[in-house]
Amino acid sequence: MKDYQYTVVIEPDGEQFHAFVPALPGCHTFGASIEEAQANILEAIQLHLEGMRQDNEEIPIEGQPSFITRLTIAV
Fold it and tell me: What global pTM score does this model have?
């Protein structure tokens, strides 16, 4: 068994939170709280990777962590 690390983005989406993994297209979930979204995305990642392994797809290895920042733009 090998350990993998992925950047996860959790963002507000209405009354809940949307979580997704940029390195794993299609791997996303929701939760009523940040903690629930985090627990749900952990499960989603595991299921996503298991599906890739069953389909004999190469599991992506994410390089350096993504850099996320907030910029202010005057319009």
Answer: 0.85
Angle (nearest 5°) at CA 74 between 71 and 75: 125
Gyration radius of the chain's alpha carbons: 14
| Nearest partner of 31 among 20, 45, 46, judged by Cα | 20
Q: What is the 3-state secondary structure (H, E, C) of the chain?
A: CCCCCCCCEEEEECCEEEEECCCCCCCEEEECCHHHHHHHHHHHHHHHHHHHHHCCCCCCCCCCCCCCCCCCCCC
Evaluate whether the domain defined by 1-75 bears CATH number 3.40.47.10: no
Q: What's the average pLDDT block by block, 10 residues per block, for the chain (75 residues)? A: 91 97 96 98 97 96 82 94
Instruction: Return the domain boundaries, the chain.
Output: 1-75
